[in-house]
Design goal:
heterodimer; A: Rossmann fold; 6-stranded mixed β-sheet; elongated; disordered N terminus; B: alpha/beta; D-Maltodextrin-Binding Protein, domain 2; 16 helices; 41% helix; 14% strand; globular
């Protein structure tokens, strides 16, 4: 617009102004400028409001009204002339126009009636199928995300029908994700050149992935063609370092660099700092309202705890290979604790509290509380994200239906409450929203559904479910909102001198660097896996579905998945079946547990079938290709029977004598699928032959395999 | 006042106005969507993919069947084991099919999915499956939708009654509920199954089964009161069963419960349990439930988007064939979908005619159950098959099951759910509209 010229209301530009433009051109320019300005304003409004019809209409009406009013105020002559011309035209063709409008109105009525009838009919008809969205997230985030997904599904109902259904599943840690995304969500790829008879997926292929942190997202190998930059919210390096490590990664697909799957990272959904938490006894000693709630660094926090007279036996933290949150906090703990990384690592993984993730760890405390155990361990500090601590302290369910809700105000819950302690330098998890598109499953509808869920989460962020906002602040409770789980409520119980309003976010270290550091801090382990694949392993696993072999291979898969590349692993399959029986595979020589070696072992485990008669356990052990030095022989068996292990005394004597001399650094662990127990013969005698320090027996329980594998691995290290 | 146009000019104007609005509406409705840059899959492949859950058959018999196919047939087939949990299998397979993805050719589906998948157009009708008369008719019907056969049984599940040695199994439903029986009443599909059995055996026979829609009155006067009566009996072991899924009830039975309601797979699991064996002798028996029971199991179907539908149909024929079904029963521990797999033939289909085949194993393999034990088990299964009822057949079964289960839990908890709100919620859920009591 050329602009106003005063305040007297007679502001029409005089003809023959010094700009030298003819009046018609000046007016044309004015109209163009007016229209262009209106278009810009309307477009901005529509873009901001995201298609809410009535609001878009209101904005458009407002802009047009303002533009019209401006025309009348600033250029009354032009407006008057335009109106006169319109009126002349109307008078000339008024009747025709009126009938035209009547015809249009009649047709509009017919169409509206039809649409209304169709809508009424649809209301009485059955619903269509909701679109299935698959969501992957850390076990710690399962409870809040499931709650959010349930709200989203209910909020997006159309005439009482759900438009979407959302399935939220937990991830198994950074190493599993690395392999899974590289192998198109398969557990392993066929080791040979032939085609496999069988493939196993890691579960549903996620449409949405909510990693704990941007660092975890960066860790997953991606070729440049796999990164979708449409409206990406920044963060995440375009070509992560790890992609180069993976040599481009097997995920690079046939489309000339257009790999599968494609990742699109959107914004963070909230944040949660890692905290060290203490049980009430220790908290009573350490708490000091006069001190700042955030320690300058983790070392200062540990000093404060020690100065208060609390002598920590250990810091309980989940296994880093299976928990991204634990991996994120590991370097900070190493730096804070006195001594070298090795001693720090031992301090951070107490043998009695090995857990695959934070919910498993906290679930164990909740179970102890439920069992009426008298006192919580005040000499233990727990390193977990603040958000899962919130779920634990407020009695919400933890994880995947293993640990149900409890009354947070029950005396036993109060007795086992955990109090968080904060330090600058303890990393903050930022939970980015990542859309994953898989070749052949990528449709406009799926893309729109993912976008709809993301936008819903922007309007209803995870700060309603125990998270802080992106700046690390505790959001205030929305007035009248009693159904969400705000962190502020727990803060109300704990006090703001315990839970600060704001925690400055600290970015976690690069995942590969953290893994390398944890790997270096751990004693390396060399595993010789010996799988009993005799015919009896095809029998039913004790007290549950599936075969013993399936149970054993599932356990070994979890074990192998948790190994790092400085560990060593090999596999042998033991059975009396003919060596050329094509159903029996195995015998992978022991090598460093590189991704390729792990894939070979996993692939052979997957292809193993049971067959033949029992091969005596003593013979199987004697024939195992065990390397020199410190070795762990893991024998997975159903325990066999004395009948298939004749001359047991002579065999055990040989094992305890000559064999032990030949392999002084060997430790045998028998892992039992059942039905035999550790007290059954011949398992008991075989284990005893290796002595107290050289032999052990572990029965598989009903706990998740990943947790049992983590516990065994911790024990072996 | 004129209400109709008179004169040519007025008529033309009215028609033009109407045409203009109609054209604008058609443009809005029919305009082609802007293209979406989808990641497309290459469907031009020579092999078949069979999608299902984790193979929990004994001796990995499902994989063994795929291997057999690959040894003697073309094209090569691969079994894709998606997950342990039925819900996760459903999530993955449904997501692929609704994307019109060609990833899978043959689907191993829970038999309650048939209506949903067929109604949504994910399945191809199966023509030319041989010897349909050999399938258990009630199991075969679970593969049918709107008069077309979309799926055939792969394995069948029926509720069975396990009893400890020395315990006489009750012969009436009321007797069962007043006994020391462990069953599955935790908040998952098992609760839906057990609640339906309770309804069918306590005045609600014929309601909430198959394609028939219950009336509001039936839900109020037959289903709701039966559930209230069940709630009043939740004491002792039955009360403890509110914490049980299948594995927990097996554990309770192996520990000390006198009776257990469970699926056929529990037979092999218990036979391997040292507490339930005395050498080769089993310390428990199995029989049909006293009354109606739910028909479970899995079906085989061909995906609508399979690039090789004919080959996929041949593979379905192979996997559901008599020989494969015999192996699945004898070696894999699954109840077959065919009479002949249990040694039954036309005219000889009573429980007494069952002759369980032995698993053609490699030398030296041993362990229970033996042939006689397997035959006794097969007879219990055939007896139970005569009493089975399908769950409600609706494309919205999962919505129904979630809603029904939620209502049952509220009735169990005594949360004041009344018959009218129960009936309203269940009726809505059968149309796919979620509701709570």
């Amino acid at each position: 617009m050329t602009g106003p010229h005063g305040g007297d209301g007679n502001r029409s530009p005089e003809p023959g102004r010094p700009d030298g433009l003819p009046p018609w051109l000046r007016r044309a320019l004015q109209v163009v400028i007016l229209d262009a300005s209106s278009t810009v304003v309307v477009s901005l409004g529509v873009t901001l409001v995201h298609g809410s019809f009535w609001l878009n209409a209101a904005i458009t009406l407002l802009v047009v009204a303002l533009a019209t009013a401006a025309l009348f105020v600033f250029y009354p002559d032009t407006a008057r002339t335009a109106l006169e011309r319109v009126w002349k035209v109307l008078r000339r063709g008024g009747t025709a126009l009126a009938w035209g409008c009547a015809g249009a109105a009649a047709m509009a009525l017919v169409l509206l009636a039809g649409a209304g009838a169709h809508r009424v009919w649809r209301h009485t008809d059955a619903c269509g199928q909701p679109l299935e969205l698959r969501v992957l997230t850390a076990p710690e985030t399962l409870t809040p995300l499931r709650a959010a997904a349930a709200e989203f599904v209910n909020a997006d109902e159309d005439r009482g029908c759900r438009k979407y259904s959302v399935t939220v599943v937990p991830e198994a840690g950074p190493l599993s994700l690395y392999d899974g995304f590289s192998l198109l969500w398969r557990r392993s790829k066929p080791a040979g050149v032939g085609r496999a008879d069988d493939e196993q997926l890691l579960g549903p292929q996620p449409d949405i992935w909510l990693p704990s942190s941007t660092a975890e997202y960066d860790f997953v190998p991606k070729s440049p063609g796999q990164i979708d930059t449409r409206n990406a919210a920044g963060g995440g390096s375009p070509v992560p370092r790890t992609a180069a490590l993976a040599g481009g990664g097997p995920a690079a697909g046939p489309g000339g660099g257009e790999g599968d799957p494609s990742f699109r990272m959107l914004g963070s959904l909230g944040s949660s700092p890692l905290v060290l938490a203490l049980f009430p006894g220790a908290h009573g000693s350490v708490a000091d309202p006069s001190r700042m709630p955030i320690a300058p660094d983790p070392a200062a926090l540990l000093t404060r705890i020690a100065d208060a007279g609390v002598k920590l036996r250990a810091i309980a933290r989940p296994v880093p290979e299976t928990s991204s949150a634990s991996l994120a906090v590991a370097p900070a703990l190493y730096d804070a604790l006195p001594g070298d990384d090795r001693s720090d690592e031992r301090f951070a993984e107490p043998a009695d509290l090995v857990a695959s993730d934070a919910v498993s760890l906290l679930c164990r405390f909740r179970q102890r509380a439920a069992a009426g155990q008298a006192d919580p361990p005040d000499d233990i500090a727990v390193a977990v994200p603040e958000q899962v601590l919130h779920d634990y302290d407020t009695g919400l369910p933890l994880g995947d239906d293993r640990c149900g809700a409890v009354d947070p105000d029950a005396p036993q819950s109060v007795k086992w409450r955990l109090y968080p302690y904060y330090a600058n330098g303890l990393p903050t998890l930022d939970y980015p929203f990542v859309q994953v598109r898989w070749r052949g499953q990528d449709t406009r509808e799926r893309d729109a559904a993912v976008t709809a869920f993301y936008r819903w989460l922007q309007r209803n962020p995870l700060t309603l479910q125990g998270f802080r906002n992106g700046e690390g602040r505790i959001p205030s409770v929305r007035e009248g909102d009693g159904r969400h789980h705000y962190l502020a409520r727990l803060q109300g119980v704990m006090g703001s001198r315990v839970m600060p309003d704001a925690v400055r976010p600290t970015t976690p270290d690069d995942v590969q660097r953290s893994l390398d550091r944890v790997g270096a801090a751990r004693p390396r382990t060399a595993l010789a896996l010996l799988l009993d694949a005799s015919g009896s392993m095809g029998g039913a696993a004790q007290g549950r579905g599936g075969s013993r072999l399936a149970r054993g291979t599932s356990f070994l898969r979890s074990l192998v998945s948790q190994l790092q590349s400085n560990d060593r692993v090999g596999l042998q399959v033991s059975s009396s079946a003919s060596p050329d029986d094509p159903d029996l595979v195995g015998n992978v020589p022991q090598e460093a547990a590189s991704p390729e070696q792990k894939n070979t072992v996993l692939s052979d485990l997957q292809a193993t079938a049971s067959g033949g008669t029992d091969r005596a356990l003593g013979d199987a052990i004697a024939a195992a290709g065990v390397g020199s030095g410190r070795q762990n022989l893991i024998l997975v068996t159903d325990g066999q029977s004395p009948g298939t292990n004749p001359r047991l005394g002579a065999r055990t004597a040989w094992l305890s004598g000559e064999f032990r001399k030949r392999h002084p650094g060997l430790r045998l662990t028998v892992v039992l699928t059942g039905p035999a127990t550790c007290a059954s013969s011949p398992v008991k005698e075989i284990v005893a032959a290796f002595g107290k320090d050289g032999g052990g027996c572990v029965p598989l329980t009903g706990a998740p395999e990943v947790e049992q594998a983590a516990a065994l691995l911790a024990e072996l290290r | 006042m004129r209400v109709l146009p008179s004169g040519r000019r007025a008529r033309v104007s009215a028609v033009a106005g109407a045409a203009l609005v109609l054209a604008a509406w058609l443009v809005v409705v029919l305009r082609p969507d802007a293209s979406y840059p989808a990641l497309k899959a290459g469907c031009d492949r020579g092999e078949l993919f069979v999608a299902g859950g984790t193979d929990v058959s004994l001796k990995n018999q499902r994989r063994a069947l795929i291997q057999q196919w690959n040894k003697g047939h073309r094209p090569h087939a691969t079994l894709v084991e998606v997950a342990d949990s039925t819900d996760l299998q459903h999530s993955q397979i449904k997501a692929v099919e609704e994307s019109k993805g060609c990833a899978y050719d043959v689907l191993i589906m829970d038999n309650t999915w048939t209506a949903q998948f067929a109604d949504a157009g994910y399945l191809r009708p199966l023509d030319g499956v041989e010897d349909l008369d050999d399938f258990f008719p009630v199991a075969l019907r679970t593969g049918r939708w709107k008069g077309k056969q979309y799926a055939v049984p792969f394995n069948v599940d029926v509720g069975l009654l396990y009893y400890r040695e020395g315990v006489t199994p009750p012969t009436t439903w009321q007797g069962l509920l007043t006994s020391d029986v462990a069953t599955q009443l935790a908040g998952y599909e098992g609760l839906t199954v057990n609640a339906l059995e309770a309804v069918w055996n306590d005045g609600g026979g014929g309601v909430l089964t198959g394609e028939g829609r219950p009336s509001g009155k039936e839900l109020r006067t037959k289903v709701y009161p039966a559930l209230v009566r069940l709630a009043s009996r939740l004491r002792g072991r039955l009360g403890l069963s509110r914490q049980y899924k299948e594995p927990e009830s097996i554990e309770a039975f192996a520990a000390d419960a006198a009776l257990m309601r469970n699926w056929p797979y529990a037979f092999s699991a218990l036979a391997s349990e040292p507490r339930m064996r005395d050498g080769a002798r089993l310390r428990f028996g199995v029989t049909a439930l006293p009354g109606r029971t739910v028909l479970g199991g899995q079906n085989l179907a061909v995906s609508k988007y399979s690039p090789r539908p004919d080959a996929a149909a041949r593979l379905v024929g192979f996997l559901s064939g008599a020989q494969s079904q015999r192996l699945l029963f004898a070696c894999g521990g699954f109840v077959p979908g065919r009479y002949s797999a249990l040694g039954l033939s036309p005219g000889h289909r009573s429980p007494a005619d069952v002759r369980a085949p032995a698993c053609p194993s490699r030398s030296g393999e041993a362990g229970p159950p033996d042939e006689a034990q397997l035959t006794g088990f097969g007879r219990a299964v055939v007896t139970a098959l005569g009493r089975v009822r399908p769950r409600p057949v609706t494309p919205h079964y999962s919505t129904f099951s979630d809603t029904f289960r939620g209502c049952v839990q509220k009735i169990f908890n005594g949360e004041g759910t009344d018959a009218a709100s129960f009936a309203r919620a269940v009726e809505r859920s059968l149309d796919g509209r979620p509701a709570s009591c």
